[in-house]
Amino acid sequence: MGKKHIVIAVHGIRDFGQWQDRLGDILAVNPSIVTERYRFGYFSVLAFLIPFARWLAVRAFRRHFEQLVKDNPEAHFSLVAHSFGTHIVAHAIRGMKPPDIPRIKTIILAASVLRSSFDWSAVIARSRMNGKGIQRVLNDCGWDDKVLILSQLFVLFTGMAGRVGFYGFIGVDVKNRFFPGGHGHYFKPAGVDADAFMREWWLPVLAATAKPRDGLPFPPNTIPKGIFYALLRLADPVKICVYLMTFLLVWNIAYLEPRRAAAEESYRRQYQTAATQMQSDRSVPTAFLALLRLAHSQSESDPAHILARFAGQRLNSFDKASRSLRTDTVYEWGDGSYLIRDQPIRLSVRRPIVEYHSTDFHLFILVGEGRSVWVIDDRTGKVKWKTSIDEEGYDASNVHMWRLKGSSHVALDFDVAQPEEDNTPHYVIDVNLDGGDGTYFGGHPAAGLDCATIEPALELPDNDDDDPTPEQYKTAQAKLDEQTARTKTCLLPLSIEVPPSFRFPAVSSESNVWSFVASTPVPKDDTSTSGCAYGEMLFTHDRRENGKLRFDDSTTDDPSVNDLSFNNGDCFYTFQGPGAKHYIALSKVMGKAWVEWLICELRTEVDVGRCVEDGFYYLAKGDLSMSPNRRYLALADDASEGIGNSWSLIDLQNMVVLAPTVFPLTRVSAVAMTDEAVLVAAPAAAPRGALELWAYKFTDGIPELLTRQLIQPPESFEFTGDSDTNIHDATRLIASSGSFVLASIFQEIADLKISSDTSMLAWAGSVLPWLVPPAQPPLATLWTTPEVGLPVNVQIAITYSPDREILAVSAASQIRIVNTSDGTFLTPVIDISTFPACRGPIVAVTAHADLTLTVTTDNCVATRQSPLSATELAKIEANPSLYFGMGGALAPMLPNETRAP
Fold it and tell me: Which of 401, 522, 749, 791 could form a disulfide linkage to 812, CB 3.0–4.6 angstroms apart?
C-alpha cells in the first residue's frame, strides 16, 4: 500500500456541502484515499461581500489544514473546492509558510471566485521551496456561470476565473478546462447518474492518478460578447472605487456627519450664549473667552470672529485697567488682596473687610476673614504681626478703630455674636505700630492714666453677684466716669475703609467706546423748491440748482418735458447709471393730484438726451431705489391706493418703464432690489397692521411675481390711532449682498432671500425629496433678530457698513449694532441723548469701512470706535493674561504680580 492520500473537499456559500459526501463515496474505490470534508457552515451573501469575513474564513481553514498536515506528516494531499471554497483554499495555501506546505498532488477548483489574474505560478513556486508543494491545479469552468458575473462586478477582491479561466503565465502546472453549464452544473445529474461529472472528470485524476483530460472547446465569442468580457475585466478598479466611495459615504454618514453636527450644535450654543452675555457688562469677559476659542479656527468673516472683535473692544488690558489703581493702596480681588506698588504684590490676607493705613509708620492694619488682624508693611507687603480672636462665635461685621493720642497704639474693637445667646461680647486688639506687635482682651477699649496705655473699659458692679454697698457702687461709678472722660480725650476715632475691589478682567461700558463733539444744529433741507419736493433718491446722487440744461430736438418734442416747463429756478439731481453714464432726475406736480419723475440721459454737463417719465400720487412720496448693477430704478408710490401702479421699474439702459403685471393695490411701504429680484413691502388688506411682502424675479427684464408672504403684528403690539400710519412709515427694506433686510415697527429685523431656482436639480428636489434636498422656498428667512429694544411707534432707520458686515438700526435717540451674517446684536441699546451735550433724536448715521459709526444729532456728532482688528485679536489670543490674568477670566493671579515676603 502506498502513502496515505488525503483529499479535502471544501464547499461554497449558501451550501452545506452535500456533494462532499457523494465525492467521498466515489473516491472510496481507492482504499488509500481518505476524504476529509471541511465545512464552515452557512456563509451568507452579505458575509461574502465583506472582505474581513472572508479573511476570517480563510484563517480558520488554514489553521485546520496546518493541523491536519502536522497529524499526517507523510501523507499526500489533494483539494477539491467549489465557489467560495476556491477562495478559501487558494488564499490559505498562499498564506502558509513554505516549510508547512505538504505535497499537494492536485487542486481542483470548480466555479472559482478567484480573480483571473491570481498568480498561481508564484504560489506553486513558493510551495516547492521545501521540496514538496503543489504538483498541478485544475480549474474547471462553466461558460454559462452567471453567478460569477455578479462576483466579478460587485464583490471586492474576487473575480470570475471559474467562467473565463486564469490569465497570464500559468504554465503546464495550471490547466483551465471549460464545460457548458452554470455555477452548480458539476453536481447536477447528467442522465440517470447524479455524480456523472465528478465520476468522469475528477475520479481518474484523484483515484487513479491519470493524466488530466482537456475540457470541451470554448465556444467562439461574438463581437458583443467580446466587448462584454472586455468591460467585465475593468470591473476590478471600478469595484475598488465603488467600495471606497461606499465606505467613505458610510463613514461620513455614520461618523463624520454626527461629529460635524455635534460640533456645529456645540458651536451654535456657545456662540448664542456668548452673544447673550455680551449684552451685560459683567459677563463680557466670559463671552470674550468663549468667542476667542470659537474664532480660533474660523475665518475672519465668521460670525464668532466679528462678535469677538466687538467683545474684545469692551475689555481693557491689565495696563489700561491698572492705570486707575492708586498706589500704596490695598485692593481686594477674587479671594485675595493686593498691595499696589510698581507691580502688584499679593498679600496673605484673604478677603479683607477693613483697612487702616498709617503713613507715619508705613503700615497697613487689615482685618480679614476669620476675625484675623494683620499688620502689613506698605512698601514690601511683608507681614509684621498678625493675630486673630480665637473665641467661639459668629464673625463680627462691626469693627471700630481708635488711635491712642500721642502714642503708636491703635485699638480695634470687635463684637462677636454668640450662638444661641442674647449677649454679644466685645474684644479689643491693641496694636503697637512702633513695635509691630499687640495683645487682645475682652471688653471695650479705654485709655489708661496719662493716655499712656489702652486698657479694658471698667464696668459697674453687678448687684446680683457682688452685692456692693452704696459706697462701693459710688466709688466704681466715679472711676468709670473718670475713665470715660479720659477715653474721650485720649482715644481718637480713626477713619477706616472697606478695601476697594480691583475689577480685572476690566470691562468698559458701551458708552466708554464713544467720543463726541458739540456741533451746530444740522440744517434741514429746504423741500419747498419745485422739482425737489416729492420723493427721495435712495442712492448716491448730487443736487444741482440753477442749471442751464439744453434739451435736444428729440427731447423737446416730448410732451412730458414741455408740460414740466423746466426753468433755471428749478433744482434737479444727477447720478451715475449703467456703463458709467450720467443721468438727471427731476419731479414736478402735474395737475392737481399727480407728480412725474422725469429721468433723462445727460450727455454733457448741460446737454440732455433721451428721457422717460413715471408718475405717482402727489400727496405721497415717490421714492426712487437703484439696483446694484445700476441698470434699474424702482419707483415706490406710497399713497396711490389703486389709482395706478403702486410701483414700477425704469430701465435706464433702454429708457423704458416696466410695470409689473401684478402689484399691491395699496400704497407701498418700501421697495428694494438686487440684480435678479425685487422685494416690495406694502400694507395688507387684513388683518390690521399686517405687512405683505411681494417677491418678484426678473424674467427677460420684466418683474414677474414669484410669491407673497404675510407678516402679522405680534400679539403684544398695541394699536393707537396713528398705528397704521406709523407701521407704514417705519417699515424699511434694504438690499444687501443678494438678500434683503426688513425692519418694521414691530421691533424685529429679518434677513430674507428670494430664490428663483428653476434648475433640473431644484425640480428633482421637489419630486424626489428623499434623493435630492428640497429646493429653497421662494422667499426664505435667513435670520431674524429678537426685539431690537428701540422705542416703538417711531420711524426706524437702517445703515450698512460698506462691506455689509454690520448694520446700525436706530430710532429716536437710540441705536444698536447688528451682525448682518446672522442677526446677533453686537452692542446693547445705546442712547445717544445720555452723552454730554447730545440732545434730541438721531438725524443721521454713517457706518464706515473700519466699522466705526458716526451718529449725528441736532447739536453733536458722536463717534463709536472701531472694534479690535484681526491683528489685535490675534495678539490677545497669543497672550491672554494681559486681558484675563493668568489662565482665565477669573484667574487667581494678576499679570506681573509678586508675592509678599
Answer: 791
Rounded distance between C-alpha atoms, residue 190 and residue 64, angstroms: 34
What is the Cα–Cα distance from 573 to 618, expressed in whole angstroms?
Answer: 19
pLDDT of 560 strictly over 70 = no
Q: Are 696 and 678 in contact (CB under 8 A)?
A: yes
CA–CA separation, 569 and 230 (whole Å): 88
For residues 726 and 728, give the distance between their C-alpha atoms in angstroms, rounded to a whole number: 5
> What is the H or E stretch that residue 842 is in?
strand 842-847
Segment holding 732, helix H or strand E: strand 732-736
**What pTM value is reported for the model?**
0.66
Helix (H) or strand (E) holding 487: helix 470-490
Give the mean pLDDT of the chain: 84
Write the pLDDT tens digit of every residue in 784-809: 887 788 887 777 788 888 888 888 99
CA 370 to each of CA 349, 353, 397, 574: distance values in angstroms, whole numbers, following the listed order: 10, 11, 11, 79
- Nearest Cα to 92, choosing from 117, 68, 72, 75? 68
Tell me how far apart the alpha carbons of residues 571 and 585 are, in angstroms, rounded to a whole number: 9
Q: Where are the alpha helices (DSSP H) in 166-317?
A: 196-197, 203-207, 223-233, 235-251, 257-277, 284-295, 303-313
What contacts 68, CB < 8 A, 6 or more positions away? 6, 8, 36
CA distances from 358 to 186, 403, 496, 498, 727 (A): 112, 10, 11, 15, 66
Going by the DSSP 8-state scheme, the letter that residue 215 receives in this structure is -
Phi-psi region of 546 (alpha: psi -120 to 50; beta: other; left: phi over 0): left
Query: Which of 160-164, 225-229, 890-894 is the least confident region?
Result: 890-894
What domains, with CATH codes, occur in the chain? 5-218 (3.40.50.1820), 326-493 (2.40.10.480)
Report the pLDDT averaged over residues 92-104. Answer: 94
Percent of the residues in the chain that have a pLDDT greater than 90, as a whole number = 35
Among positive and negative, which fits the CA dihedral 224, 225, 230, 231?
positive
3-state secondary structure of 391: coil
The C-alpha atoms of residue 660 and residue 698 are separated, in whole angstroms, by 10
Q: Do the Cβ atoms of 63 and 92 come closer than 8 Å?
A: no
Cα–Cα nearest to 275, from 81, 793, 283: 283
- Give whole-number Cα distances, 279 to 3, 286, 303, in Å: 94, 12, 16
| 505 prior amide bond cis, ω within 30 | yes
Query: Would you state the pLDDT for residue 687?
Result: 84
Q: Distances from the Cα of 578 to the Cαs of 629, 650, 666, in angstroms?
A: 7, 12, 31
Q: Please report, in angstroms and rounded to a whole number, the separation of the first and last CA atoms in the chain.
A: 102
Given a cut of 90, whether residue 61 has pLDDT beyond it is yes
Q: What is the pLDDT of residues 257-300, one digit of tens each?
A: 889 888 889 888 999 999 999 888 888 888 998 888 888 766 66
Beta strands in 39-146 (DSSP E): 76-82, 103-110, 133-134, 137-142
Given its phi and psi angles, is residue 484 left (phi above 0), alpha (psi -120 to 50 degrees) or beta?
Answer: alpha
- Rounded CA separation 69/65 (Å): 6
In 314-420, alpha helices (H) = 318-322
The pLDDT assigned to 593 comes to 63
566: pLDDT strictly greater than 70: no
User: Could you check whether the bond before residue 687 is cis, i.e. omega within 30 degrees of 0?
Assistant: yes
Name the amino acid, one letter, at 398.
N
- Which triple of cell numbers denotes residue 831? 442712547
- Measured on CA atoms in the order 827, 830, 836, 837, is the torsion positive or negative? positive
Handedness of CA 559, 564, 566, 571 (dihedral sign): negative
Label the pairing between strands 399-404 and 445-447.
Answer: unpaired
